[in-house]
Amino acid sequence: MRTGAKTSASRPKWDFVHNIERRSRSERQCYSTRIDSALLARNNVAGRPIFSAPGVPSTGYFIEAIHFLGPQNCALSVVEGRSTDGTFEILSLLQENLTEAGIDYFFKSSDINPNQNRIQALADLRNLALKPLHDNFHTFSQDATVIFLNDVAICMEDILELIHQRIFQKADMTCAMDWTYVGPDPTFYDVWVARGMTGDTFFNIPEDGSWNSAWNLFWNDEQSRASLHAGRPFQVFSCWNGGVAFTARPITEGIVKFRTHSNEECFQGEPKLFCKDLWYHGYGRIAVVPSVNLEYSDDAAKKIKALKGYVSSWVSGDSGTTQITWQAEPPGLVKCMPTYMEQRFIPWDEVTILPCCALIFFSLTLLCLYFFYLPCWFFWPIFFWCTPLNFFSAYGRQHLAWTLPD
After folding, report:
1. Torsion sign (Cα): 193, 197, 199, 204
2. Burial of 400 by CB count in 10 Å (0-12 exposed, 13-18 middle, 19+ buried)?
3. Fewer Cβ close by (within 10 Å): the C or N end of the chain?
4. H/E/C letters for each residue in 200-211?
5. Please, where are the H alpha helices in 35-177?
6. pLDDT the model gives residue 97
7. Taking 90 as the threshold, does the pLDDT of residue 101 lie above it?
8. Considering the chain, what percentage of its residues have pLDDT values greater than 90?
9. Res 402 pLDDT > 60
């Protein structure tokens, strides 16, 4: 294990932003727990290459963050998929340089096509990026942090703030806020995955699919709404939002991985199921860090940073120094939204335990009344025995004995 104790002398304080001295040294010290960084890359050269490489114009913020944290404390896992613009070749050539810099670099190319069985394919790709962590768990500290990024335009300070808030808030997972410009004004993007502690979406979407209320975030959750506008981290049920930092413990323990929905569950995205499984296993400290605002192109990212602020502008105040008061229990009901026209609230740990048993019970009851005139209560014991058996079989399929793909 190449990690040390958490000491203020192990790494310098975080001084990458203006007026950072307003935060205490103990809050902004660098922790020497090992960082695992996971990326999914496809056709990244023309628009926004991930890495600095000879002859390739790039921001290189991810590599800058690794050098800031200390290469000896970091590992980088990249899964490239079906690129046609030279991304594969560049990522392959980085192996030697990153290894010489002391960075453990795991690179894999995959032919998995997200356009076919999309949720399962994306889950498999994400699990491939995490496979080195799962297979080499003994080289990571127990409280290692995983940084997982989508194809977002991101700054080094965004990455470091997600890490910092996960540690400072004692969170299991921290998420950014991601945006898209479908018009002159930005719209929160990851609404299909994200759910607040009310169990509802971040903004209301009627059955006609209109995003006219997209500006009205957390319209039914005043506490989260206030925290969002103040730039203070706040707890949510689920999020992804383009970039996350989460504890590696449930991955190294083999109890959580990315997956698609089971037959007993609402159709939903793999990041929402990931958060659901974190809650189920006791990792429900999931938070949004609203000072980290991301977009999916460089030009749009500059616009959203100018509008919402860079991390450096937020941390010059007290926005990120307030501790979250964590709720131990998730919301009882969470919105299921396979499509805009099909929205309903379901138990957060939903499995189909009642329909099967209820069907058997009522069918037998009708037959009983029709042929034998026996009372309805005759079959209640069957109903009560059937329900827990159905529950454990359904939930067992979701949560037990998972293996990562090869």
Report:
1. negative
2. exposed
3. C
4. CCCCCCCCCCCC
5. 61-69, 87-100, 118-135, 156-168
6. 85
7. no
8. 47
9. no
E strand map for 256-403: 286-294, 333-339, 342-347
Of 272-276, 314-318, 391-395, the poorest mean pLDDT is in 391-395
Q: Which of 261, 250, 249 is nearest to 397 (CA)?
A: 261
CA distance linking residue 307 with residue 12, whole number of Å? 31
Q: CA dist 395 to 121, 159, 390, Å?
A: 22, 35, 8
327, two tokens: 């709720």
Are 205 and 216 contacting, i.e. CB atoms less than 8 angstroms apart?
Answer: no
Nearest to 157 by CA among 262, 44, 274, 19: 19
pLDDT, one tens digit per residue, over 41-72 is 444 433 333 333 332 223 367 788 888 999 88
Q: Which amino acid is at 3?
A: T
Q: Give the SS3 label for residue 67.
A: helix
Residue (of 406, 364, 367) closest to 385 by Cα position: 364
Q: What is the pLDDT, as a whole number, of residue 88?
A: 82
Q: What is the pLDDT of residues 303-328, one digit of tens each?
A: 999 999 999 999 876 666 789 999 99
Q: How far apart are CA 100 and CA 388, in angstroms?
A: 56
Structure pTM? 0.77
DSSP result, 172-187: SEEEEEEEEESSSSEE
Instruction: Output the DSSP codes for 114-140.
Output: TTSSHHHHHHHHHHHHHHHHHHTGGGS
Other Cβ atoms within 10 Å of 12 Cβ, number: 13
User: For the chain, which residues make up each domain, given as ranges?
Assistant: 20-345, 352-399
Q: Which CATH architecture has domain 20-345?
A: Alpha-Beta Complex (3.90)
Q: How many CB atoms lie within 10 A of CB 5?
A: 10
pLDDT digits (tens, 9 = 90+) for 363-388: 555 565 555 555 555 544 544 444 44
| pLDDT score for 365 | 58
Q: Which residues pair with 86 in a beta bridge?
A: none
Backbone angles phi, psi at 173, to 5 degrees: -160, 135
- Tell me the Ramachandran region of residue 210: left when phi exceeds 0, alpha when psi lies from -120 to 50, beta otherwise: beta
Judged by DSSP in three states, 69 sits in helix
